[in-house]
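Obj: model holo form, ligand = AG3.
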Amino acid sequence: MRLIENWFSERYSDNLQLSFRIKDQLMSVKTDYQRIDVFDTYDYGKLLAIDGTVQMCEYDEFVYHEMITLVPLHFAGKRAKKALIIGGGDGGAATQLSKAGVGNIINVEIDSHVVQVCERFFPELTGTFHKQGVKLLIQDGIKYLRETQEKFDVIIVDSTDPEGPAEGLFGKSFYSDARKKLNEGGVFVTQSGSPYYQPKATKMAYDGLKSVFKHVRPYTAFIPTYPSGFWSFTLAYDSDIQEPVEASITGKYFNSDVLRGCFLLPQFVKDLIGTT
Ligand code: AG3
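Output (holo structure tokens):
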């Protein structure tokens, strides 16, 4: 008989948390940037946490990773050949882009330990870093984007919450550097938090991008293991792109209905970002 139960909880506030019953803690390391943990959970598979916040787990990583890659890819259209991922050291975003046929991917992750930990526990995702045409750089993404001579069709920011190392990835100067590194017809996307529990993050991304790009389009997805389950991403671009309505790729979450529907925002989100 098991007398002791172990749980990992992500704390949203003093009064609310999401708890996962775990079989084991597989790893815990404190790096120069953050604390990384991996848990073996009962119902959600292996789970990666950074600074106590859920980054991904085997059960639902496909939702986040499909939505952060396939939506911008459809807006960038057939021309999308070259992509940049900032963050994403778990390889999930790179894996979706590679599956979608993007031949040239640069992934800039600030913390080498994220990659090392994921190589050990999520090799099916990090395996993509070893594919031809995929380049992994361990570097500060803000600095990389400011200094690189390269230009991209899609730039994806797969970051942690805007506290700690990811804070600058929600700033105007970063967005304006990103804009300069997009090819004609290129698109930028960032994860932008839960409109319920992190309205500041959602608004910060929207306002910052709006001050730089002509078109800014928030969209949402249902991700059960993230705060509130209701998650936002924000797409930004300058060209007058004809809105795609048919998905050329069907994922486990993503399809034509989702492509069309994900931009429909509840009123409280519209009120938050100040659109009608
Ligand atoms: N990056 C976004 C995770 C943010 C989750 N926030 C939270 N649980 N408070 C995910 C990394 C996956 N590649």
